[in-house]
Amino acid sequence: MTQENYFEAMNQISAETDKILSPYVREVINEARTLPELRIGKPRLRDVIVRLGYEITGGKDLKSIAPVCASYELLNCSTYIINWIFDEKGGPKSKKEIDNLIIGGFQLRELSERALRENGLESLIESLSTINHTIYTGQDLDLNVLTLSKIDNFDSYEHFIQNYERRCSKLSGEFYGQCLFSGSVISGQENQDLYEIGSMLGTGGQASNDLGDFALPRKDLSVCEKPYKDQLSDLRQGKLTLPVYLLAKRSGIDKEKLVNLSPEKIIGLLDHTRTFEDCLDYLKKQQKKAKKKLYESFEKSVPRNLLATALAGILSNKFIVSIKNEIQK
Q1: Which among 7, 119, 217, 293 could disulfide-bond with 67, CB atoms 3.0 to 4.6 Å apart, if both were Cys?
Q2: pTM for the full model?
Q3: Using CA atoms, how far apart are residues 252 and 173, in angstroms rounded to an integer?
Q4: Cβ atoms within 10 A of the Cβ of 117, count?
């Protein structure tokens, strides 16, 4: 029942947010508008995280947080679109397509600020700059430091995991920390514990997505921001995520050959080298740490239960379930 309530809460706040979001999205030019348009009408995780930060600190009126959710969704789409260029999501693009996506990405960033300013929420504008700066610091780590070609720069697993967790925190942890904390700002009961819990959620969620990238390409696994044909893109592009690191260290296969193996062969290696099992263990530890912080910080309540459900997503998403099913065949 808690999971049903969780998705109901997500649907409610996303529907309320859409009323504010839609006019801003219509101002975005060309193909950059495609992503935010696809996401309108669908439940969105960041929306419900803002809501839970608001309600766990006593907030009652969903309309008061909808502009915050709209602002963060516009910023989120901005970073997704720029990431499409970095990672060649959907395949290589022409110069004109890249130019238009850059223009649209900048527009979405400015619209995210307008959504706050025009709704009297100037106090949260600084959070947009913090999130944006932190994400692109994470992108620098992703593109220039944590790469398969530089795996020998890490003299131990501990050295690698320190940098990997820093990358996950910057790519996603900061954003979710700000989302959860902003809810308490709107309720008038600012709570820094929420920032920490949200950061754990985002950091663990990024690591979860990295493992999910190894799911075999299937249309039913496609999401708006990641077409199903882009599965295995981290390995193909030489991104040094946790599962890529473990595979490279344990498989005994040359790096250049590893990135060109068939998806089915890679699934077999995830199992044979215990990479999948050890990545799951890592995610379990991240989830346990976040839940411990949640239960120590807040008394039992409906919002706390729903936030615990959100944290469960660190360990289980449809991509990870798909990999597990393939391994068990």
Answers
A1: 119
A2: 0.94
A3: 33
A4: 14
